[in-house]
UniProtKB/TrEMBL annotation:
Keyword Metal-binding annotated: yes
A Pfam family hit: Peptidase_M76
The protein, known as: Mitochondrial inner membrane protease ATP23
Organism, scientific name: Onychorhynchus coronatus (Royal flycatcher)
Family membership: Belongs to the peptidase M76 family.
Top class in the EC scheme: hydrolase
Keywords (A to Z) from UniProt: Hydrolase, Metal-binding, Metalloprotease, Protease
Enzyme nomenclature, EC number: 3.4.24.-
GO biological process, one term: mitochondrial protein processing
Length: 244
């Protein structure tokens, strides 16, 4: 998971002597707890707020709507109750994709604004889309993880000009690519017990191919307007293909 914005893939199973923490589960302590009763969750303000914001995202965000439709067409229909879970997390993350359960975790104690929820859901749905369409080895192949992190940072809106300005990061030429690379590296380091050099090497080796993989958007959606156009193009593309 990516500290602060909360990105990233998997938290996973133990493998031999490898600790669970190597896969980032330490950032999501509720993953290993017994689920709370509906009554307790209903009375928990953070949980209620998370559920309301999630519904708003799924109903109104063109980023999320495009990804949900693309996953459905790929044979991976997403169900709200099954594939999203609002939980308490470590203070440095906002969300994550648990590949072991095909579930997106939303950090109810760290997501406080609708725009933040929109971005986190989009980021994690990109991981879910990659999980659906490709044979991603989240747990053993750091290049696979790096590729999905690059795509998520590139296509989710994580690196828009406004978000970067809010982080007091400024730049012109090549700034978007720099942001994508930096955030992908940070995400890997958050959920894998690897050196910074290993994370950087993995990102650099797959960067060009994965940065230019724009599925299912077909473009880098730098704004909600871009995402709406991408969603319309995706729908029209499918109608065109159906008539061939």
């Amino acid at each position: 998971m990516e500290p602060g914005e909360g990105d990233s893939p998997p938290a996973a199973e133990k493998k031999g002597a490898v600790e669970e923490d190597d896969f980032g589960y330490r950032l999501f302590p509720d993953r290993n707890k017994k689920p709370q009763s509906f009554l307790v969750r209903s009375l928990f303000t953070f949980h209620n707020r998370c559920q309301v914001m999630l519904r708003m995202t799924l109903e109104t965000s063109p980023y999320a709507q495009l990804l949900l439709e693309a996953m459905k067409q790929s044979g991976c229909t997403v169900f709200n109750d099954r594939h999203f879970s609002c939980e308490n997390c470590d203070g440095c993350v906002s969300g994550g994709f648990d590949a072991a359960t095909s579930q997106i975790v939303l950090c109810q104690n760290n997501i406080r604004q609708q725009s933040h929820m929109n971005r986190v859901v989009t980021h994690e749905l990109i991981h879910a889309f990659d999980h659906c369409r490709a044979h991603v080895d989240w747990f053993k192949n750091v290049k696979h993880l790096a590729c999905s992190e690059i795509r998520a940072a590139n296509l989710s809106g994580d690196c828009t000009l406004m978000n970067e300005m809010a982080r007091f990061k400024f730049g012109l030429k090549g700034h978007h690519q720099t942001c994508v690379r930096d955030r992908a590296i940070r995400s890997i380091l958050a959920v894998r017990n690897v050196s910074k050099e290993t994370a950087e090497k993995a990102v650099d080796e797959v960067f060009d191919a994965c940065f230019n993989d724009l599925e299912p958007f077909g473009r880098i959606p730098h704004s909600k307007a871009d995402a709406r156009r991408a969603y319309r193009d995706f729908q029209n593309r499918d109608r065109y293909n159906a008539n061939l």
